Amino acid sequence: MTKIKKLVVANRGEIALRVMRSAKEMGIATVAVFSEVDRNAMHVRFADEAYCIGPPPSSESYLRMEKIIDVAKKSGADAIHPGYGFLSENEDFAELVEKEGLIFIGPSADSMRLMGSKLAAKEAVAKFKVPLVPGTSTPINDIGEAKSIAKKIGYPVLIKASAGGGGKGMRVVENENEFENQMERAISEAMAAFGDGSVFIEKYVLKPRHIEFQIFGDKHGNVVHLFERECSIQRRHQKVVEEAPSAVLTPELRKKMGEAAVNAAKAANYYNAGTIEFIYDEDGSFYFLEMNTRLQVEHPVTELITGLDLVKLQIKIAEGEKLPFQQEDLHIHGHAIELRVCAEDPSNNFLPDIGTLHTYRRPQGHGVRVDDGFEEGMKIPVQYDPLLAKLVVHAQTRELAMDKMIRAIEDYQISGVETTLGFGKFVMQHHAFREGNFNTRFIENYFKPEMLKERTEGPEEQLAAALALLVQQESKPQPASAILPTAAVSKWRKNRV
């Protein structure tokens, strides 16, 4: 068993800070890597050492394996933690790290390689009797054959890139007439994004919920799950709100899905942190979707309901320790919800926004956690993901957690860029979410951009509109009764941003 003394965090922003804080508590020295645009970033200032690895584009910095390995050697580090995104699921990087005599904090390259291909992953988990969505088990590139298979499955069907992720190379086909066009587009997009045009076809679940199970394995063959997370509130197939536990699972179904998740991990001889993602149908059926071979963005909700530090657990497993608990030792405590606070404009199809954080003040209080990597006055770089922060709350019940999230959103002060805070409040207040009766089509079914404007126009905004009208007409004589009270105008001026 090898004890890690110095750790390179091959990432940036909030996840880099998140990993470094846990490492520091374990007495492990930390090394930051950064691009030129991140020179003054919080994770750079927090680390014990920091090294510039290139220009702003990730292809010239955070994705340069050899530069990160070189930093590890120069700094005398023992291990590398990849965080999520960038090189976190790159089996070649994991292989290179170990070849250079360093510890990779994550699964083996072989497990990554297996689960990185959706088709190979489906074949592997099928041997362990993990439920699969009806569809193909091998790559399809013949349109005629594919069309015949789709007809047998029954429309609608989903065409999906084998090496895909983040919604790329994915097409929903409603009927036979549009099949050829959609398949050609899926193959083309998959080739452009991943250099692999192989696709498979599966039944499209009309009202799916996205439920995933956090699993952990050690290098001694032990695997457990740390319960589920519901991730059904999404835009462009990417998550915005996550919670644990799911509002829809019974204890019996949780046990059944958890066992399937553990079996899926065993199919890959998996160790360290991973996530098994399922599609859950309204009839109670569930199907294996994919495995993410890394720490997830939404891991804090699992930490809050289990009381575990997942990063510390990752490090201990990488050092060779056994899991310190068995499945029966784990229990759910309360309810946790996470909102991804992104620099995006929900009123404009969630398009990313850039600018300077003129105001940035985090909410506080019992049961409120903010994981971020920004401070007031910092600029949002255009080169990276628009995630500003993860706002996470924990309470005894789901209802209390939703109410706490609303309060935290109202306390979170951000100006200079558009954010998803208003959308998060909309979700927390919507009857479908509060009742637990929703699916991945929540935005499509319930959200319209103008709804945010209606909800945000309170007394201050109304006063602002009235004042603007007053300014327009100030050249005209007005009766005294038409002038706004001094107190009202002062209140508007005091509260405007």
Structure description:
The chain has 4 domains: 100 residues, 3-Layer(aba) Sandwich (Rossmann fold), CATH 3.40.50.20; 70 residues, Dna Ligase, domain 1 (2-Layer Sandwich), CATH 3.30.1490.20; 246 residues, ATP-grasp fold, B domain (D-amino Acid Aminotransferase, Chain A, domain 1); 37 residues, no CATH class. The protein is built from 18 helices and 20 strands. A hairpin with a 5-residue loop joins strand 12 and strand 13. It is globular and about 60 Å long.
Summarize the structure.
The chain has 497 residues and is an alpha+beta fold. 36% of the residues lie in helices and 23% in strands. It has an 8-stranded antiparallel beta sheet with strand order 13-12-9-10-11-14-19-18, with helices on both faces.
Please state the second-level CATH architecture of the largest domain. 2-Layer Sandwich
How far do the termini sit from each other? 55 Å
The helix content, as a percent range, equals 25-40%
**Proportion of strand residues:** 15-25%
Strand arrangement, largest sheet? 13-12-9-10-11-14-19-18
Q: And the CATH topology of the largest domain?
A: D-amino Acid Aminotransferase, Chain A, domain 1
User: What is the CATH class designation of the largest domain?
Assistant: Alpha Beta
Shape: globular
C-alpha Rg (nearest Å): 24 Å
Helical element count?
18
SS-based structural class? alpha+beta
What descriptors fit this protein?
497 residues; alpha+beta; Dna Ligase, domain 1; D-amino Acid Aminotransferase, Chain A, domain 1; eight-stranded antiparallel sheet; five-stranded parallel sheet; 18 helices
